[in-house]
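We treat protein structure as text, and this decision shapes the records that our systems exchange. The tokens are whole numbers drawn from a learned vocabulary of local backbone shapes. Below, we set out a record of this kind in full and without editing:
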Amino acid sequence: MRPPPALALAALCLLALPAAAAAAYFGLTGREVLTPFPGLDTPEAPVQGGAHLKQCDLLKLSRRQKQLCRREPGLAESLRDAVHLGLLECQFQFRLERWNCSLEGRTGLLKRGFKETAFLYAVSSAALTHTLARACSAGRMERCTCDDSPGLESRQAWQWGVCGDNLKYSTKFLSNFLGPKRASKDLRARADAHNTHVGIKAVKSGLRTTCKCHGVSGSCAVRTCWKQLSPFRETGQALKLRYDSAVKVSSATNEALGRLELWAPARPGSPPKGLAPRPGDLVYMEDSPSFCRPSKYSPGTAGRVCSREASCSSLCCGRGHDTQSRLAAFSCHCQVQWCCYVECQQCLQEELVYTCKH
């Protein structure tokens, strides 16, 4: 059954990217900047006039969500930023997997209950939560500002450069934006809702208190503390671990509450009848395809670059791999020049590249 539009927003937004934008994020190394949003570290005035109305109309939103978007200048831009952030992180976490987070032209995956679909819902909702909280602290949203740390006013916070990420506003707004939580009789809808909240919970788990000292000669006579989210890479890594240990679920009726519940197989040491999945578990309903060959779910793995020692065996699905030699440029013989820059030469070295056979 097709997931409801309100809960499907986070995953479906990934499909709004043009092909060129999606292709630009392949070949990730882990050194990419994960918050490539201009002005995110400094206060920025929200979009004025009717520009944000046009941005809202271009997004794939329900009628109710478009109304909320139009009332909140800065939201449309933050939603687009969240799409890029979620896609970039998904592609990095799955860069060595048979499914490398490729969705372009393959919406069939979003209609199934695979582990990969569960991860998409979680990483998309996490990216939305993270980006909205950061947008508040950057002054890009009209109706929110810094986090409400005790004794720290917004103007004072920006003066000291310690404007905290407003996770409280972000989660509250997102809950309203995705729609009221209703008991559903559809297993897929309940699973999607569960995975959405796993993503939000993962961002909450990364909230830290950071402090800055003020005083003569660096003394800590006065200390200002604020809330700060951990880098989104850490959230992505946490969600990937939950993907690796995702729980396959079925449905059962809770007679005491009179509603459908998610039900997981019994774990070692647990009652034989099984238990409900834990709040932090990603859940899925169907076993994933192999993703080895092109299908409506994946482009396959032919031509993918792999590591001969680590990933070629699994990634190439037993078809073997080709080996090519190429020259790669790198900086070498670097010297510090007065004053104050580093001057390097360009050197070439031969390297072997391994790609999966067709």
